[in-house]
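DM from R.C. (forwarded with permission)

"hey, sorry to bug you on a friday — could you get me a structure for this? deadline for the figure draft is monday and I only need the backbone to look sensible"
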Amino acid sequence: MSDNTANIAAPATPGAVSRALSRIAAMVLRHVYLMRTSWPRIFELMYWPTIQMILWGFITRFLLTNSSYIAQAAGLLISAVLLWDVLFRGQLGFSLSFLEEVWSRNLGNLSVSPLRPSEFLLSLMAMSLLRTLIGVLPAAGLAIVFYKANLFDLGLPLIGFFAILLIFGWAIGMMVCALILRVGQGAESVAWLAIFLIAPVSAIYYPVSVLPEWLQIVAWTLPSAPVFEGMRAILIDGTIRFDLLAHGFGLVLVYLAIGAGLFLYAFHVARRRGLLLQVGE
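My reply, with the result:
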């Protein structure tokens, strides 16, 4: 990954953009080949979303016969599970694609290739999107078949919800990868733990108002809470809360900037200190 400041300062030309896109595509293709030759990887992507959808489907069926609140919004919990999995899969897909490079001790090779850190970052985002779609779409389809719960009934706001949660997952993944670059592979378990730290205050299955007042403040500083509040507003009240969408987008762009800054800085420091070859140790 060239550290040539002249290239960074120079204006982008069509040829430079084309070469950058080629390098990003090459990184994506590498991970696609890894997935294609290992069916357990693809199975794992679809397994957890499907299991969660089935589990919460049965819970919803029980609650439909015991709660008038849930009866007002059939598919509420299933929709919440599927949207939550977008965030979870987005973050884990980003982190695992990075960890694939760590486990194969390939970071050192990438650091001396023409691939730039920003292009590496974009390739990880692309793989995260691919992994998320592979994991969530089959579960969403089965939810329609088994429980008549159609996530796509959310309409056009679903695109906004998906984008916010996916980008938030990227931001968290960048922070996790920056930590791994800083302290080594011993921190890789954070890739699985980080996302669940925010689950209780993301208002996935209950409104933000259920939380204590001080936690409500924390919840509204996360892009995930406005998404799930907006989802409930559509399914229960039939109302599209554009204010919540704007709130979520505004916050997620801040988190994305912070995550990208931390990742690029940690990568730069690791490369300067010759630590990229030691990350896997």
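R.C.: lifesaver. Residues 14-278 form one domain.
me: no worries. Residues 1-10 have pLDDT under 50 and may be disordered.
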